[in-house]
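@channel sequence for tomorrow's demo:
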Amino acid sequence: MVVLNKIYTRTGDTGDTALGNGARVAKHDARVTAYGTVDETNATVGLARLHATGDMDAALARIQNDLFDLGADLCRPDMESDATADYPPLRMDDAQVSRLESEIDAMNADLKPLRSFILPGGSALAAHLHLCRTVSRRAERETVKLAQVEQVNRAAVKYLNRLSDWFFCAARHANSGGADDVLWVPGANR
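structure tokens (generated this afternoon):
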């Protein structure tokens, strides 16, 4: 378990930080950017939870925990040495992706098909879930960018891809099952 007795360490004062394997990299490194954006996603989920209750709050709590798992996965670049590590690194798995897919299917089953794009908004919860969606899309882009130059767990990329879809369906669900979605009207203000 992690023990944080002192919050500042001064080890990053020169612009670098430690990865989960102990290697030091620049704070603007693609891997740090990827898991930093996952952390931003998690913070937006915390804001959404201020407006969530019941099953939605429980689902968002699970997602927040998954996002910490994802950050732990992304901060360990040495996947080829997982089997020989002192302790097994935490990696995302396909079961986490499948759970999101099942939840998306369940939410989407109650929603009417869209005939227009929707604008981020509606209820406070829906607006926050749309913010979660856009930040998670950025986390996905950063992770895919990282995967172009370094090894990344494929389940991590799949999870982020499904997560933004989850937030989209959840936002519609939070807008009275889509009845209160704010529809885009192309060219309305010309």
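heads up for whoever presents: Strands lie at 16-18, 24-26, 118-119, 182-183.
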